[in-house]
Specification:
The chain is of the alpha+beta class. The protein is built from 16 helices and 13 strands. The protein is globular, with a radius of gyration of 34 Å.
Length: 542
Amino acid sequence: METIEKISIENEDKEITSVHKSRKLLVFLGGLGIIILLLAAGTGFAYLSVKSLLVEKDPLERDANSLKLAVKEQNLEKIKASTKDLESDLGRLQQKVGNYRLLGSLPIVKNYYNDANHAITAGMSGLKAGNLVVEAISPYADILGLGGDKNSSGSGKTTLDRVTFMVTTLDKIRPQLDKIGFELETARKEMDQIDPNRYPEELKGFKIRQNLSLGISTLDQASSLITDAKPFIEVLPDLMGVNSPKFYFVLFQNDAELRPTGGFMTAYGILKVDKGKITPVLSEDIYSLDNAFNKKLPAPDPIKKFHKDVPYYYLRDMNLSPDFAVSMQEFMGYYKQLPIAQKVDGVIGVDTKLLVGLLKVLGSIGVPEWGNFSAENDKRCDCPQVVYRLEEIADKPVSTMKTARKAVIGPLMHSILANAFNSPKSKMAELFNVGLTAIQEKHVLFYLFDEKSQKAVEAFNLAGRVRNYDGDYQLLVDTNFAGAKSNLFINQKIEEKFELAADGTVTKTINVTYNNPFKASDCGLLSGGLCLNGQYRDWIRL
């Protein structure tokens, strides 16, 4: 029988397996080498790209600073020139970034590459919006006190001439708002795609993350502002009496005696507005309205509880809601029932801050039969002289009865308007800024009877509304029920503290501190002192 020999293939298998492993290792090492080479090449490419792009940093910074300075100087010609330079810088940078599209496919780097594209596109749209704004306001450069524009209209010699020109040509601005809004919305969408948390807090003293967040929020606000401004610009000519004269009930609120809508309703006047020209029709003490109000309305619960010596509800107290429209709906509902009521188109609430601001620009003015008024500091109250003088006229005890003492508001208003409307061109920008600041800081509030007009002022946040809000917010309402003018002297500080528990619960603590560093006034009726800094009885709602 033939013998079959056993053949061992163990070593051969080991050799074959070893060869396969070696090949896999070589493939892996080769692949790893290629990846490393690609990464190295990509990194080198990214480095060279960034180095090339950084060349554009200095001209961008230089021209951006020139634009800031031009805006600060309010010089339209310089703004146009700086904007053109910046557009050129961004265009050059955009072209260079486009040359390095490969960066958009590299891991990690692509996020920053895409952010750069978003930022550049947003910048270009923002500059286009700026050019449109300059184009829209150029005809009014002379009116607004802006310098450098050769094409602006002279539009008359006095402030009144300039105001009339502005309100009668505002309809030309409206079409521009749509274009401005489109560019700002484009910029906003681009910037919203950038995540500031991707960047360090600070690099070489420059706060990167903070500035990115600020830029994004600023664009959001600017875009919303233009959207909200369009309906207001549309109704503004009508409100300024372009089509027909308008009459407004002007309510003077004394912020030295705080009430929910801004102050105690101390006096009122009627203003006529015709093609921008404002003419006082009358002014009266608020008590003249209450004397004509022959109804005995029981005082509401807050007055019963905190103001026990007042059994009835008077017109002068009908601003208990911090929402200006809510308070004025009630107030004007009763006013219209009075035999002395005049037909008006709405209510404008103002406080002493507007008077002081105007007098700072105009200087001291004289009011026949009432003396001089100015914004200079009066040491007797460490407040503007006009504020002390008005309080002295209205509230200081006198030996003989003097009726309608608060009617001084009318002649004062007439003198201020006469001086403002006849002031030279150099005063126009300052007066414009005083009015704008007063509106922004809610020293001027509007409640209009026309539904379209009211919606417009509400959209532009000029109506003093307490808006519905789903998130966390703070609303502090002070109501001075003491009668004295202690709010002239009281300092108020509000501090917030947030604590986050392990389970995610948020505890918010608010501390409100009231401090009155001034000595008390002589509030004795027999002594004849002026009771300004008296006992403070405050109804607080938080």
